[in-house]
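pinned: reference chain
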Amino acid sequence: MSRPLLDIVVAMAENGIIGRDGGMPWHLSTDLKYFKALTLGRPMVMGRRTFEAIGKPLPGRETFVVTRDPAFAPDGVTVVGDLDLALEAAAASATAKGVSSFVVAGGGALYAATIGRADRLFVTRIAASPEGDTRFPPIDPAIWVLDAAEPMVRGERDSADATFETWLRRR
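pinned: its structure tokens
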């Protein structure tokens, strides 16, 4: 098997906002199901604040949490003090599991540090422009090509419309 792909999975508003006060400024139950389908069985890398916002390890996903806090040690995840080491560990885990990719799942600092290395972006583009304090880096069309866009079928527990986008790195 060739090296596993690095995928970024993100929910982002039209104005680039991905978070506010440690959470998301929307509720999209349908997107949470999509996130689960994209990530189940694949190693995930996330920052400490993203992990704390989720509040627990997600079942069926080996999780590597990046933090500089040596005292941070929740059960059920692997804590790594360096992003490069976390990415290497997640790639090795994907290879060992026989899966084709691993996921960076937030937050803003990790997205900014990995967008230049990612192979694919799975973006839930939310049809809203909320206030927020965390943004996703710009998706440069010279580097990325939109491969697919599918409107989300809005459920009764979704606070906004959205589109599921898949972006591929130009080769």
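why pinned: The mean pLDDT is 96. The chain has one domain: 5-169.
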